[in-house]
Amino acid sequence: MKNVTIYSTPSCHFCHMAKDFFKANNVAYTEYDVASNLEKRKEMVEKSGQMGVPVIIIGDELIVGFDKPEIARMLGFV
Questions:
Q1: Taking the model in full, what pTM does it have?
Q2: 3 state SS of 45
Q3: What pLDDT does 74 receive?
Q4: Comparing C-alpha atoms, which of 26, 24, 44 is closest to residue 34?
Q5: Contact at 8 Å (CB) between 68 and 21?
Q6: Are 4 and 57 in contact (CB under 8 A)?
Q7: Residue 68 and residue 28: Cα distance in Å, rounded?
Q8: Which of 14, 51, 53, 54 has its CA 20 to 30 A from that of 39?
Q9: How far, CA to CA in Å, does 28 sit from each of 23, 31, 38, 39, 54?
Q10: Residue 75 belongs to some domain of the structure
Q11: With contact defined as beta carbons under 8 Å apart, do 68 and 30 qualify?
Q12: Boundaries of domain holding 26
């Protein structure tokens, strides 16, 4: 399984949808709350070029937002 990282905030609806998708599909992930972790927020902006969440990294691919079909593809589900 590829390493999965999600940069999120507690109030982000799409972040919750992404995490629910990961849980439903038994995908282990590392989560960083960029609302409270300034170091990880800076890291997220450096990687993605923006402040929008969720920023999801799967293996060496990065996606911004919750695009379920694309995330499934990145995970090798399709």
A1: 0.96
A2: helix
A3: 97
A4: 44
A5: yes
A6: yes
A7: 16
A8: 14
A9: 8, 10, 23, 22, 16
A10: no
A11: no
A12: 4-65
Residue 44 lies in a domain: yes
Q: Which two tokens stand for residue 36?
A: 């409270």
Q: Looking at the 3D structure of the chain, how many domains does it have? A: 1
Q: Are 64 and 51 in contact (CB under 8 A)?
A: no
Q: For residue 73, report the phi and psi dihedrals to the nearest 5 degrees.
A: -65, -45
Look up residue 21 and give its amino acid.
F
Domain CATH code at residue 50: 3.40.30.10
The CB density around residue 59, as the number of other CB atoms within 10 Å, is: 12
pLDDT grade for 78, boundaries at 50, 70 and 90: confident
Q: In this predicted structure, what is the pLDDT of residue 54? A: 98
- The tokens for 37 are 């972790």
pLDDT tens track for 19-66? 999 999 999 999 999 999 999 999 999 999 999 999 999 999 999 999
- Residue range 2-19: mean pLDDT, rounded: 98
